[in-house]
Design brief:
Structural class: alpha/beta
CATH topology of the largest domain: UDP-n-acetylglucosamine1-carboxyvinyl-transferase, Chain
CATH superfamily of the largest domain: Enolpyruvate transferase domain
Number of helices: 22
Bound molecules: 2'-deoxycytidine-5'-monophosphate
Helix content: 25-40%
Shape: elongated
Strand content: 15-25%
CATH architecture of the largest domain: Alpha-beta prism
Largest sheet: 5 strands, mixed
Distance between the termini: 27 Å
Radius of gyration: 30 Å
């Protein structure tokens, strides 16, 4: 399957338990400290993701012994403050948690290094950290733009000045990097923070991690931090990495919106990660939150039913998890305002701009400014629009938008961006969420699919998708635009832009009633041809999936069970003898006042069956898990009753 997008069905509910991957922030700090320490460290529950892979690669390049063991255990052989490799080039992707601290450490360690990343990394500022390091005598030059990576580092000419000032209002990672590097100097050094220090909880993680490796930083509030003389790192032996509290936020929000209870394991409220305070924001929105030893759980307000309410919150203490609140806000009563989030603008992407753009695709109002975002839920009687969400190479955008699936079918483009912190996010997500149910009814032309599927939908009170109509509409619209079937890209563009409204038995194309026009034999033949074009099928895929709205969908076609809704709860393959199908079609056409011959119809049906089942993409076929229903000798009532019987036999989940 292509990894270019993932389509999420609209969800009915969410509950269950998720074991969290290790924290990115803790993993990368622990790896670097273990590398700098004297002695070997066994790191347990390390996060395996793009960002930690960048750090592991860099450490190997620097000559640090880095060995994987069983079950996410890693053995790091510390170099006691002196990297064996004194000259190298490091590539750090878009991993800020690797780039910033390594810059500080290498600038003070002594050696010749070049440090680069992806294009976005070269747009993320690092000047404040470089300025601070230069006060200590570091020799760092910019290889591209002043104040930004890539960087060239040469051995420092260490200066006697032992008080360094550092701006704290752009990224807390600068202070983190500097503090982690200072023990290399061996003399007492004080950092004075200029301006308001942002994202303070991340500095807490840094101090706690350093303490674990034997270095205790003295501090005066958030203004002055002093690293004592002779404070080299020593391995504590074994270090456990907590589950990632930012990753927890998606599942806790999922439980709060989707009913719950949803439990995350691997982190408790006593965590050293500031993002556990996301739970306070969720509780302020009305969610029920509970926790225990190494787990946290969230449910909707009032025993799994009530509705969340919008809040206004200063999010400086939870900059990452706050993004989760922006999509949770879609399900609250009243707007939600997230304040003091200017740091979003210098993260993996400009997160304020990206969130506003993508939220608006869902049809909601969003106000955004330099350091805030305000999200309005859909108005009374309004629903979120199905949309294709772009993710800007930003894992958190991909993950927090998955929550919108509780309000609409959704496409998430480039979902592999989650690899930065949570490579199997969507698999875990699928395990704890329940999609709107689908009954897929595939089969040969004129086998009675449409009639039976419509009646089943009526009996259940569910929505109905006549997918064949979309191919017929495409054929009609392409014909009218003078685009031939051999022009695959042209027909696909028509399919992508169809302006169609389904309303009961009526189908309008660009405002014109076409429900009869698309049933002609000429369009039947043309539809079968356009349906064989892969680009046309791709263009219609999400449009079909967008029909999956509560309480359920009955979909008929050729590839409903195999391609469009492979997770359908009930799959049926309908057929009938060619003679019976020709006779039924003949009757239909005569009733509509159209001329027809049974012999010609039989021939057409055989040809279409042949083309539909022989084409290279999504050929008509009975899925292995589909029930076969031959309607040659069945009345419509009996066939409908049989399908409903199969539906009722499916065990109800969730
Ligand atoms: O079901 P129908 O006869 O209205 O379908 C019209 C054509 O569209 C038919 O030749 C097969 C094609 N089709 C398809 O390829 N995939 C679907 N899911 C539905 C129809």
């Amino acid at each position: 399957m292509s990894a270019d997008f993932i389509d999420l069905p609209q969800l009915l509910s969410a509950r269950g338990t998720v074991r969290l991957p290790g924290s990115k922030s803790i993993s990368n700090r622990v790896l670097l400290l273990a590398a700098l320490a004297a002695g070997e460290t066994e790191v347990r529950d390390l996060l395996l993701s793009d960002d930690t892979a960048r750090m592991l690669d860099a450490l190997r390049t620097l000559g640090v012994g880095v060995e994987p063991g069983a079950g996410n255990r890693w053995c790091i052989s510390g170099v006691a403050g002196r990297f064996p490799v004194r000259a190298s080039e490091l590539f750090l992707g878009n991993a800020g948690t690797a780039f910033r601290p390594l810059t500080a450490v290498l600038a003070l360690a002594g050696g010749h290094y070049r440090m680069a990343g992806v294009a976005r990394m070269h747009e993320r500022p690092i000047g404040d950290l470089v300025d601070a390091l230069r006060q200590l005598g570091a020799d760092i030059s910019y290889l591209g733009n002043e104040g930004f990576p890539p960087l060239a580092i040469r051995p420092p000419a260490l200066l006697p000045g032992r008080v360094v000032s550092l701006r704290g209002d752009v990224s807390s990672q600068f202070l983190t990097g500097l503090l982690m590097a200072l023990p290399l100097l061996g003399v007492e050094t004080t950092v004075e923070v200029i301006g308001e220090l942002i994202s303070k909880p991340y500095v807490e993680i840094t101090l706690a991690s350093m303490a674990r490796f034997g270095v205790h930083v003295r501090r005066d509030g958030w203004r002055r931090f002093t690293v004592p003389a002779d404070s080299g790192y020593r391995s504590p032996g074994v270090v456990h990495v907590e589950g990632d509290a930012s990753s927890a936020s998606y599942f806790l929000a999922l439980g709060a919106i989707g009913g719950g209870p949803l439990r995350v394991e691997g982190v408790g409220l006593d965590s050293i990660q500031g993002d556990v305070r996301f739970t306070e924001a969720l509780a302020a929105m009305g969610a029920q939150v509970s926790s225990g030893d190494n787990w946290i759980e969230a449910s909707a307000p009032v025993a799994g039913t009530g509705t969340l309410r919008g809040i206004s919150l200063d999010c400086n203490h939870i900059p990452d998890a706050a993004m989760t609140l922006a999509t949770t806000a879609l399900f609250a009563v009243g707007p939600t305002t997230l304040r003091n989030i200017a740091s979003w603008r210098v993260k993996e992407t400009d997160r304020i701009a990206a969130m506003a753009t993508e939220l608006r695709k869902l049809g909601v109002r969003v106000d955004a400014g330099d350091d805030f975002i305000r999200v309005y839920p859909p108005g009374a009687g309004q629903f979120l629009h199905p949309a294709a969400i772009d993710t800007y190479d930003d894992h958190r955008i991909a993950m927090c938008f998955s929550l919108a699936a509780l309000g609409t079918p959704l496409r998430i483009n480039d979902p592999q961006s989650v690899g930065k912190t949570f490579p199997d996010y969507f698999a875990r997500f699928a395990e704890v969420s329940r999609g709107v149910p689908v009954i897929a009814i595939d089969g040969t032309s004129a086998s009675g699919k449409g009639t039976i599927a419509t009646r089943v939908a009526q009996a259940l009170g569910w929505h109905y998708l006549d997918s064949g109509a979309l191919y017929r509409l495409t054929a009609l619209a392409a014909g009218r635009a003078g685009i031939g079937v051999d022009d695959e890209a042209g027909v696909a563009a028509v399919a992508a832009d169809l302006d169609v409204v389904f309303s009961g038995a009526s189908i309008t194309l660009s405002g014109e009633e076409v429900s009869d026009a698309i049933r002609s034999e000429e369009i039947s033949a043309a539809a079968s041809r356009v349906a064989a074009l892969p680009a046309v099928r791709a263009a219609l895929l999400f449009r079909q999936r967008a029909f999956r709205r509560p309480p359920g969908l009955v979909a008929d076609g050729r590839d409903m069970a195999s391609v469009v809704f492979p997770d359908a709860l009930t799959k049926v393959f309908l057929t009938a003898s060619v003679e019976m199908r020709a006779w039924r079609r003949h009757k239909q056409l005569i009733e509509k006042g159209m001329a027809a011959s049974i012999a010609a119809l039989s021939l057409d049906l055989r040809e279409r069956d042949e083309r539909d089942s022989q084409r290279s993409v999504a050929p008509m076929q009975q899925s292995a898990d589909a029930e076969l229903l031959d309607t040659t000798n069945l009345t419509i009532e009996t066939a409908v009753a049989q399908v409903l019987d199969w539906v009722n036999k499916v065990p109800k989940v969730g």
